[in-house]
From TrEMBL:
Organism for this UniProt entry: Chitinimonas lacunae
Protein name, as recorded: Homoserine O-succinyltransferase
Active site: S154, D319, H352
EC number of this enzyme: 2.3.1.46
Taxonomy of the source species: Bacteria, Pseudomonadati, Pseudomonadota, Betaproteobacteria, Neisseriales
Gene3D superfamilies named among the record's database cross-references: 1.10.1740.110, alpha/beta hydrolase
Length: 380
């Protein structure tokens, strides 16, 4: 049965860029490809385009399904579609798989130009600003001079914030959800432990495991299990699993005994089957390096001084990885610079993952804000 709120069946598209891209590290990609999807229709004025920036494990597949048999819709299907907060009847929505990704865009598992093998360990480190520059190249290709909005959660929110700094004239609205102006030391520590699980896997081979015909699944599995714990709240985990045992009584061993252990191992195994370990390393390092205030004597207000976008900043009460206090740092910097900003702290039991969920207050907020954006950019 057709779902009138779904974008329906979708397909990925590919954009090839032959011009070199100089990265912040000084490394140069001689050419690159970006895989992306679009939903909705670009209006005649080209004013209704919305960019969705994905988080660490996300990709370009934001909404819809690839076939009628597809079990899993895009990762933000609850947010994007006809009549949904990001309404594809009113917006032209673009989702991109970032450079370094493992879902079609140029990354470590792609063939390196001039070599008949994957980039592997030779793929350069990328940072959020590199992604923003590549996304801007795609916008140029699509004929989009200015986004109606750039939207993202978590690492995606960092990209949205970076857009407002790097290309202040190219976005009207910036929606930063469950994010932060930079990582805390604790967050960097979590990322380092996750990376070490991968780096010390015997199948990692210094990042060149492709040529050995193996993948460091054990390390990637552990990295995902650790990360997944930080994305959830204690209350959420306790409410769902508590201390439930899979069987009656203790077995006095180290196999799976508690339901939470079974859940985490399932999540780790599933992730290790579909994600690339080198990409995980790149994405977590990009998180670590993000700090737009770094070149402004540590002043976020100064870093945001040139932006002309209007902001919506959203946090969630039980998000301890990117707590509401971190979002308030962004809000304060914007207010110090006399910028336009709306802030909402949503009561949720879902922890950091709340930005992916359908908490009613969150959905109402997004509907209301984006309805105003749509009214603004769609001529009557």
């Amino acid at each position: 049965m057709h779902d009138p709120t779904s974008v329906g069946l979708v397909r990925a598209q590919r954009a090839e860029f032959d011009q070199p891209l100089t990265l912040q590290s000084g490394a140069v990609l001689p050419s690159y490809e970006l895989v992306y999807e679009t939903y909705g229709t670009l209006n005649a004025e080209r004013s209704n385009a919305v960019l969705i920036c994905h988080a660490l494990s996300g990709n370009h597949h934001v909404a819809g399904r690839y076939s009628p048999e597809d079990k899993y819709p895009g990762w933000w299907d609850n947010m994007v579609g006809p009549g949904k907060p990001i309404d594809t009847n009113r917006f032209f929505v673009v989702g991109v798989n970032n450079l370094g990704g493992c879902h079609g865009s140029t990354g470590p598992s792609s063939l390196e130009p001039g070599r008949n093998e994957a980039w592997g360990s030779r793929f350069p480190v990328v940072v959020v600003n590199d992604w923003v520059h590549a996304q801007a190249q795609l916008a140029d290709r699509l004929g989009i001079d200015c986004w109606a909005a750039v939207i993202g959660g978590s690492l995606g929110g960092m990209q949205a914030l970076r857009w407002s700094v790097t290309f202040p004239e190219r976005l009207r609205h910036c929606l930063v959800i469950a994010s932060a102006p930079k990582l805390s030391a604790q967050n960097i520590a979590f990322n380092d432990v996750a990376r070490n699980a991968i780096l010390t896997d015997p199948d990692f081979h210094g990042g060149d495991y492709y040529r050995h015909g193996v993948t460091p699944k054990r390390g990637l599995r552990l990295a995902r299990m650790l990360g997944h714990i930080t994305y959830l709240s204690d209350a959420g985990l306790g409410g769902k699993f508590g201390r439930q045992l899979k069987n009656d009584g203790y077995r006095f061993g180290y196999d799976v005994e508690f339901e939470i252990e079974s859940y985490l191992r399932y999540q780790g195994d599933r992730f290790a089957d579909v994600f690339d370990a080198n990409t995980y390393l790149l994405m977590t390092r990009a998180l670590d390096y993000f700090d737009p205030a770094r070149h402004f004597d540590g002043s976020l207000a100064q870093a945001l001084s040139a932006t002309s976008a209007r902001f919506l900043v959203v946090s969630f009460t039980t998000d301890w990885r990117f707590s509401p206090e971190r979002s308030k740092e962004i809000v304060k910097a914007l207010l110090d610079g006399r910028k336009s900003v709306c802030y909402a702290e949503i009561d949720s039991q879902h922890g950091h993952d709340a930005f992916l969920m359908t908490d009613p207050a969150y959905m109402r907020l997004m509907h209301a804000y984006l309805n105003r954006v749509a009214d603004e950019v769609n001529p009557r």
